[in-house]
Amino acid sequence: MGKQPIDFTYHSHTYRCGHAVGEDYEYAEKAIEAGLKILGYTDHVILPDLTQRNMRGKPEELEGYIQSVNSLKEKYKDKLEIHLGFEAEYFGDRYLDYYRSLLRDKVEYLILGQHCFLWGDKFVFYGGSYDDTEALERYGDDLIAGMESGLFTYVCHPDVFMAWYPLWNDRCDKLAHRICQKAVELDMPLELNMGCSYRPSFRQRRDYLYPHPRFWKVVGEYPVKTIIGMDTHSPQWLVDGDVAWFIRFAERNKLNLIDRIEFKNPFK
Q: Whole-model pTM above 0.90?
């Protein structure tokens, strides 16, 4: 598709997570090809004491990630504004000090992507383990607590629960309003996530799990800031992503689209 109708993404991954491909510099090269001015690297957060295969990098990969992105900042500084961050879950108190240390010493920002919770040292995905209703309630509670922590710049794919919750119902509607109310209270943007759009089924049938139209219809009722996130897991996605579809989706749902974010980093 070539040049994109937006000039930014603050959400992009690297091969270290185990489910993305491509070298770090290739993302920068494709971002420039796509006409982007801003590229944020936000791989799934690397934790100091736990590994999670095909989800996040190993502890020993942390410094390499940081050094690589920082070197790209310098290499491409005349062509592209590069930022360094992580997409991270809120795990209660367990990693708050660690997240604070990342923001203080290593990265510019964190974005809140609530995929799973911890049961002891075991990662549990919300939709793959037990009763859907209990999982939905826990997802909502964890997401809201993460928003309230003051450590995250915006909320990634807040409607991701519809990837595993069977059907939209009153519980979903209640959660959507709860998320929107908190986003307004905290002036925290919600992300219109492009992750599902790279699947062939999306191109062929516009078949998607998120963005979920019922969720974003609720968002349109609030003065919530919305940011498009490419959520790239391949450099090619930066040029191939159908951003125009998401802009039209936002317009239909009367979303308050923004194109720049201010990092919430209490140490900067």
A: yes
